[in-house]
Amino acid sequence: MLEVEAINVFYGQVPAIRDVSLRLDDGGILAVIGANGAGKSTLLKAIAGQLRTRDGVIRLDGEDVSRSAAHQRARRGISLVPEGRRLFRSLTVGENLMTARATRRKGPWDLAAVYEMLPIVAERRDRRAGDLSGGEQQACAIARALMANPRVLLLDEVSLGLAPAIVGQIYAGLPAIRAQGTAILLVEQDVQQATRASQDVQCLL
Ligand SMILES: Nc1ncnc2c1ncn2[C@@H]1O[C@H](COP(=O)(O)OP(=O)(O)O)[C@@H](O)[C@H]1O
Ligand SMILES: [Mg+2]
What is the pLDDT of residues 7-64, one digit of tens each? Predict the structure, then answer.
């Protein structure tokens, strides 16, 4: 479903990732691990279209999307939960979730479904996103990404700096996402967390 073939990404003249390949099937999950600076965020941004690849191909359902803009890839079903989460801090949780409707993708995820999967998000629905704890913001960012009904969900270090309880709630929700046919590509520095979520682990050097 998602195929990444030998992509290179440069910041100016400096290579950030070299010859990275991976593949994901419908409802599949793959964890990519790597040290700080290995290029994990770069990889996810390249797949989402926020960074250009210099070489290689990114295919979604067999079609080359390597040259498509980020918003086009979002409409095709690639959803990134970025490092730092990038919520609209002055909007409520519920309003943040509704912004994902801009992709106009149909599917199983709507407000009721994401609230059921992540109860903490439901509890905070009328609060301003900027007033939430880090973990609550992370859960909200994942809920927002799901509202776009993605084919593939890209998760950038969801557990970083969060309390174990909320990390547990987030990871516990992943099987329900995959059961809807959405594939998950997650990157983590924490090897244990990655291997717990996914049998398939790839290392970025
Ligand atoms: N905007 C940028 N400009 C130049 N270099 C960058 C930029 N962002 C990241 N890098 C470099 O690219 C490499 C990979 O970074 P990143 O993808 O953020 O790694 P990770 O997410 O694995 O910690 C690092 O060496 C980092 O310093
Ligand atoms: Mg990173």
Answer: 999 999 999 999 999 999 999 999 999 999 999 999 999 999 999 999 999 999 999 9
Q: Pick from 11, 45, 157 the residue to mutate for probing ligand 1's pocket: most ligand atoms within 8 Å of its CB.
A: 11
- List all residues whose CB is within 6 A of at least one atom of ligand 1: 11, 16, 34, 36-42
**Largest Cα–Cα distance of the chain, in whole Å?**
47
State the amino acid at position 70 in one-letter form: A
Interval between CA 40 and ligand 1 midpoint (Å): 8
- Cα distance from N-terminal residue to C-terminal residue, the chain: 24
CA of 110 to the centre of ligand 1 (A): 34
pTM comes to 0.94
Interatomic CA distance for residues 8 and 74, integer angstroms? 21
Question: Which domains does the chain show, CATH number per domain?
Answer: 2-203 (3.40.50.300)
